[in-house]
Amino acid sequence: MISVAASAAFAVLALAWGLVTGSQLIVFDGLYSFASVGLSLLAVLALRTARKGPDQRYPWGREVWEPLTVVVKAAALGGLCVYALVGGVADLLGGGRDVEVGWALVYGAVATLGGAAVTVVLRRRRARGSDLVRAEAAEWAGDTLLSLGVLAGFGLAFVLDAAGRADLARYVDPAMVVVVSAAFLPVPARLVASGFREVLTMSPPPELSGRLQAVVRAVEDEHRFAESFVRASKVGGRLDVEIDFVVADTSAVQTVRGFDAVRASLQERLAELGQPVSMSVGFTADRAWAAR
């Protein structure tokens, strides 16, 4: 909701400022913020839906709504960046654009300071938030860095205008539209890739997967199981884990009560991963059942 409020304020400010100054770049910034308002509201709805937990309709929970929303949000913003990129190239080929450079420079300073403030607030909250909060924080961080570049670009246009080179200053705004929209593209591209991994229930990121494997391997060695098999996927804020141990005659655990104790130990150790875990643990003396 912090991101929604900030995006709404920036959208109104940028659209009005861009129309007054004639800057296509500021208009693009306003449109980007305007799109973010609706998409951030969608993210809030998805987060609240995910937190309702499992029921008869969603027996495994609703966490998949989180990565699905990230994909939709990132794809929409990526499309807007491509649209702005094409428009900027068209303006460059058409001879540039006249802009009220002084007021555009003021906007660059306001956007940079405002974006930095929102980024700091979201980064402080993302540690206890979901992937959606982390995505919002990453988006605002990128926006702030680009606002700093915009500020430098308008500064260059101001210098050119003051030096009597208004003919060159005309190209600064469309050139920055091209640069900024192209620079924005990697952010939604990364979010689409990570979101699709979760929607398709692919394996977790390597760092998380490595820590998970280490925990299972420690339990396997501790109880002298013959082998272990781990299948895992990260869906939104939930980590789905299926673990199968192959029990040998020499294994330290042979009874159902002993297997339950291993489950309890695993649950305690996996809690240290900092991710809610949905865990299924199986034990078999026949390797073929575990390897399937």
How would you describe this protein?
The protein has 292 residues and is mainly α. Helix content is 69%, strand content 9%. The protein contains eleven helices and three strands. The chain has a three-stranded mixed beta sheet. Helix 1 packs antiparallel against helix 4, helix 2 (24-50) packs antiparallel against helix 3 and helix 3 (65-93) runs antiparallel to helix 7 (172-184). The radius of gyration is 26 Å and the shape is elongated. The mean pLDDT is 86.
Structural class by sheet pairing and helices: mainly alpha
Shape verdict = elongated
Average pLDDT, to the nearest integer? 86
User: Which residue ranges are poorly predicted, with pLDDT under 50 across at least 5 consecutive positions?
Assistant: none
Distance between the termini: 45 Å
Q: Helix fraction?
A: 55-70%
Radius of gyration: 26 Å
Q: What is the tally of helical segments?
A: 11
Strand order of the largest sheet: 1-2-3
Main sheet record: 3 strands, mixed
Please provide the count of β strands: 3
Strand content: 5-15%
Helices and strands, in N-to-C order? HHHHHHHHHEEHEH
Give a quick precis of the structure:
This protein is mainly alpha-helical and 292 residues long. Helix content is 69%, strand content 9%.
